[in-house]
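The protein record reproduced below.
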Amino acid sequence: MQNPAHGRGRSLDKAGWVALARAAMENTFEERLVMPHAEMEARLWEHGWVPPADVRPLRFFPHILTEAQQEMERENRISRTVHTTKGETSVDLLVTANTRLRKTAIAAASRRKGMLYGRYDRWSSTFGDAGEAVLSHSLTMAMGRGDGFTPVNSDGKFGELIRIAGLRFPGAVDNAAWLTVFDPATRIPLPHHLVLIEMKNRRLTLYPRHPEVYQLLHKAALASEHLPDVPIVPTLICRRGHPWLFWMAKDLGFRVQETRRQFFTLPDKTEKRYLAEVQDELALDLTPINGDMPNIIEFFKGVLPKQAAAAAARWKIMAPTVLDYAAQLRKNTLDDPTRTQLVAELHIEVDAILTTHRLGEPATWALPPIETVEDPTYI
């Protein structure tokens, strides 16, 4: 049986995955010479690495790649360098330490990768707005199709929600909708469900320990406390999530949807080859919103309406417990040991609640507390 916590493609413990990741990184750096971390992660996690004499790709989760990278840096197998582009952008690059007979090639690769990542970095200022534009567009499409979504905002448009029924959120919710849900047996409409949505259009693969997760859960828990009779469905949309995040969502009663694309606005009059170069040479899944607006309509058309009632029922049970934890875990300033300890404690409380309500056992999405301080990179 494969261990889904560390990678996909083989059944290995954590040490085995790290060792295999090192081999994959050695192989990839021999071929590429120079890579920013984002490219290395994209190639070995999202695209996958095919070992010699094998046909199936292996995919390494980011925490395994980070640990393998740190080991290789300590052993001087790879090194970090800061490349300054012609546009005065500083770019962090990882470089193979095997420079014999290829210093010129490494220098050329550093210039090229630095230039391309500098271009990506300039485009990154549009990520937030682009992701929210795709979200609003998709909800509008779902409403037009008659999938049961209507805006919460009084102007009749989908967009940020700052307050509802006297509750002012600690930071706007990226989007919100009322969803008409039907009883699966009788097809009688149930009370409207409030869908609170956060869009995280970032390169980061989200884990249960990341503050971005608790920014949504804190706002949703406050809404549940303020509106106890309203079924609420917290919904997190991200580019990538670790399997533990999906297991955590099932246990707590929120929903996660991956886009597997990073949306952005391509600057006017930019040649298409400039985008293709970043996509191909850095292996990044960039999707412009210029021209044909992309969408994530399949999630709103089929997945969420089917899951909303069950998610809201579970969230109603869990929200009071999540509230205090999320208020702390949403803080970016929380140190790693404390953060992972709190996630472990939340998991213990969730286990007790599931047992009390006879809802089964929780999935594994947190470390035991004793391991938290020793190994904070695990999750």
Summary: The first strand starts at residue 7 and ends at 8. The radius of gyration is 22 Å. Confidence is low (pLDDT under 50) at residues 370-379.
